[in-house]
Amino acid sequence: MFFYIKRYKWALAFACLSMFVLGLADNIRGPLFADLINFFKLNNTEGSASFAATSAAAFLGNILSAPLMRVMTLARLLIIAVFLMSIGLFGMGIAPTFSLYIISALVFGFSLGLMAVVQNLIVAENVQTDKQPKALSALHAIYGLSSLLAPIVASRAPEIFGPWRSSFFIISALCAVVVLGALMAYAEPVFEIHEHTQEQKDLKTPKLLLFAIGGIFAFYVTAEILVSTRLALYVRTYFNMDLEHSSNYVTYFFAFMLLGRMVFAFKTFASSLKQQMNVSLVASIFCLLLGLYVHPFFITVVGLTMAPFYPISVAYISEKTGIHKRKFITFALSFQSFCVITMHLGVGFLTDRYGLFYAFGVGLLSLVLSLICVNFHPKVSS
After folding, report:
1. Alpha-helical regions (H) of the chain
2. How far does Cα 166 stand from its chain's mean position?
3. Does a structural domain hold residue 16?
């Protein structure tokens, strides 16, 4: 059975559905990190390699998204990305060795890289400019919702199905459902392959500008992923919590993130996007310091202070770069993947050598760098 819907509704609907499965898949790995280490008998550096491999493949997906978007529509590329995610997750669930797990994680990571670019662009290009902050906040609120559910799935799925990796199969099946739904829905008018204007082709972008704009959320995402993937291990290591209790802390983190993004999805604030980003970053640094030196619960509150930053930063970059948004957003996401790869490898090394407490310093540094990029990036030429 096939049905037709308006293009902007297709864009919003399947960007949100794909974001839901992405949030589950991306954040299921944090609560299961300790189980991954134990099952394959790894140290922290080796375990972190699985995250780094995923991020490396995501980096490749970010880079290849640009040429792929020149030969296919955003809608088709989104469907392919969700399908690849389903395959990668299934492989991660059945892999008998760590090597095969890494291969599956590479497929999964590649799909992440494609989806990260397409989801943001398909909304940015099909929603009116003045409505983009709310639309992007709603999109990433979906990520917050699925991220909130991820640790619950991680802790409950083994109780029902047995194996600790059973949650991978559940999310793989959900990806397959999204693919089927997208294939059955036809957009009106149809999506078209993007053609670069002469002005876009003639733009000469200084590398400093690309890195400064990209660093706005590349460094932020590095900090967010560090907290979400290492929080469970942190409280299990320093506070002797079991899987259920450590998963609860991750749940609190994403509950706060969901709350924050829901607020920004429904309420318009008078302050500028730049001011909102500054408040988010400064508050996140403060709460992370409290979490490390006072009580770990404050680390979960970082989810609330971080909540608006990603969607607002995408809207900010889209606003500042205009018709060149594809180039800047694609580069920013590629730079983000590179930073995340470096973070995972660095945090694994720092954890083995000095302890996870000190490895969280990478998150603090990343937030400071993002703050610098927000306030001191060069002006984008129109």
Report:
1. 7-28, 33-40, 44-69, 74-94, 98-124, 132-161, 166-184, 198-202, 207-239, 243-266, 273-293, 297-306, 309-321, 325-353, 356-359, 361-376
2. 22
3. yes
Structural domain for 219, as ranges? 3-376
Q: How far, in Å, CA of 84 to CA of 118, rounded?
A: 14
In total, how many domains does the chain have? Answer: 1
For the whole prediction, is pTM greater than 0.85? no
62 domain-assigned = yes
DSSP string across 50-77: HHHHHHHHHHHHHHHHHHHHTTS-HHHH
In a domain, 227, yes or no: yes
Answer yes or no: is 381 within a domain.
no
329: CATH? 1.20.1250.20
Angle at 78 between CA 143 and CA 84, to 5 degrees: 90
83-112 pLDDT, tens per residue? Answer: 999 999 999 999 999 999 999 999 999 999
Centroid of chain to Cα 62: 12
CA torsion sign, 13 to 121 to 8 to 310? positive
Closest of 310, 327, 124 to residue 206, by C-alpha: 327
Confidence of residue 202 (pLDDT cuts 50, 70, 90): low
With contact defined as beta carbons under 8 Å apart, do 244 and 155 qualify? yes
Query: In whole angstroms, what is the distance from residue 120 CA to residue 133 CA?
Result: 11
CB atoms under 10 Å from CB of 347, counted, come to 27
CA distance 63 to 141: 26
Query: Could you give the CA distance from residue 333 to residue 90 in angstroms, rounded to a whole number?
Result: 25
